[in-house]
Structures are given as structure tokens and as C-alpha cells.
Amino acid sequence: QVQLVESGGGLVRPGGSLRLSCAASGRTFSSYAMAWFRQAPGKEREFQAAITWSGTITTYANSVRGRFAISRDNAKNTVYLQMNALKPEDTAVYYCAAGPTAQKSWGGYNYWGQGTQVTVSS
């Protein structure tokens, strides 16, 4: 069992940066792949980035590649999403998820956090 708690969301101007954190409980965190998804009002949950349990392989959505960076610290049971060059269309609730493999499908993840709001606006 893994419990996930996101933090770091907020209001930022276009072009700005935010770093989201996702703290996990449980001693098995390092055995899970982790991912970030987002969901804007009226839209489906959308994959953003994923990272393998070891942190050696990362995958990104085309829309955020080069702007967002996912990383993890297994000693701290935490996964991060560094978001740079933010755009208004990045506004959404951001969720972290844990699952057996790093993949783009939300159905492949067993555990989800409650989400953190990111708003990009001038």
C-alpha cells in the first residue's frame, strides 16, 4: 500500500516555474514507477511524465518535453516535477501516481494522490 501527497502547486505567471513534490508513505516506494498526470476542467486526465523505479529512464508527453523534468529521491520517498516556461494551457490539477511500470496510460497506475492545483495566469 502506498499513500501519495502532492504539494507545490500555486499561481504563477506565464514563463515562470514551479516544482511539484509528491511524498509517498510506505517502505516499498523505491519499487514503484512514478508518474505525473494533469486534468483541466472538462478534459480527461493527461499523462505528463513518468520515471522508472531506479530513476534511470524518464518519459514525457510531447507537450512538456524540454520544459518539465521528473526526478525522484528514493531515500526521501519523494518524486518531483520541475516545471519551467509555464504556459496558461498548463493550468490544471496535477496528480502523482505509482504503479509497476513507467507508462503513459493512467490505467496502469495503482495509487494516486489527491492532486495539487497549478494555475498559470498573468
Report the portion of residues in β strands. Answer: over 45%
**Please, how many helices?**
0
Order of helices and strands: EEEEEEEEEEE
Mean of the pLDDT scores? Answer: 96
Structural class: mainly beta
* Cα distance spanning the termini: 40 Å
Low-confidence stretches: none
Shape: globular
The proportion of residues forming helix, as a percent range, comes to under 10%
Number of strands: 11
Strand count, sense and closure of the main sheet? Answer: 7 strands, mixed
What's the quick description here?
This protein has strands at 3-7, 10-12, 18-25, 33-39, 46-51, 58-60, 68-73, 78-83, 92-99, 111-112, 116-120. The chain has 122 residues and is mainly beta. The strands form 2 sheets. Strands 2, 4, 5, 6, 9, 10 and 11 form a 7-stranded mixed β-sheet that branches. It has a 4-stranded antiparallel β-sheet with strand order 1-3-8-7, with no helix packed on it.
Describe the structure.
It is built from no helices and eleven strands. The radius of gyration is 13 Å and the shape is globular. The chain has strands at residues 3-7, 10-12, 18-25, 33-39, 46-51, 58-60, 68-73, 78-83, 92-99, 111-112, 116-120. Strands 2, 4, 5, 6, 9, 10 and 11 form a seven-stranded mixed sheet that branches. Strands 1-3-8-7 form a four-stranded antiparallel sheet, with no helix packed on it. The model has no long low-confidence stretch (mean pLDDT 96). Helices cover 0% and strands 48% of the residues. The protein is an all-beta fold and 122 residues long.
